[in-house]
Amino acid sequence: MRIRIINANTSTAMTDKMGVAALNVARPGTEIIAVNPASGPLTIESHFDETVAAVGVCEEIRAGEAAGTNAYVIACFGDPGLYAARELTLAPVIGIAEAAFHVASLIATRFSVVTTLGRTGIMAERLLHEYGMGIRCRKVRAAEIPVLALEHEADTAYRLIEAECIRARDEDNIGAIVLGCGGMADLAARLTARIGLPVVEGVAAAVALAESLVTLKLQTSKFGDLAAPPAKPFTGEFARYSC
């Protein structure tokens, strides 16, 4: 089984971190290919960033199709380009936010999300409602750290994330915590041990779900809105998509 982990930003260090997190939970025999687009935002912290990044995600899906990929993980907590990606392939495509919400809901009746910035927390709230998980989430909390702090100020970032997780545990009346950034992929086990609640990290959750769908021989439905995009001409820099 071959799973392509698509880090939607262009940080290769973050891509490597996510690849390790995926390998740590992958079944024997599962091949993990961790990639990121060549062009796009270095980090994703706004709607604009997500929109630009979605094009790179689709490019990586197209590359994965040529390489015979069995399943894809979009490793950004905004799940950028998720539905467009599903249009481009029969293989399962799992977004890490959607995966983390569902996994948390299987082990706790209520959970909270701890993410990086307040503005991305608002974006996570939108996804919770879109995925029908708003009723299961008590609160979306922000440690108020930029994504790059997870690489360049890792100790400080961890302390702030841990402190927010402790507040979530003590104040939110929850059973689990979801980490709201792919760049936190290496923190779940450490935080679980420290906080005493299950801490769900989306990359690992998405890999496990992707493997399950492939094992069940379930593919992305091509009936309705996830059918392949209709053939049409594109212009300018997107002319390569014409068909």
TrEMBL record:
Top-level EC class: isomerase
Q: Provide this UniProt record's keywords sorted from A to Z.
A: Isomerase
Report the sequence similarity comment from the record.
Belongs to the HyuE racemase family.
Tell me one Pfam family matched here.
Asp_Glu_race
| The protein, known as | Allantoin racemase
Top-level lineage group: Bacteria
The GO molecular function terms of this record are: allantoin racemase activity; amino-acid racemase activity
Q: What is its EC number?
A: 5.1.99.3
Spell out the Gene3D superfamilies in the cross-references. Answer: 3.40.50.12500
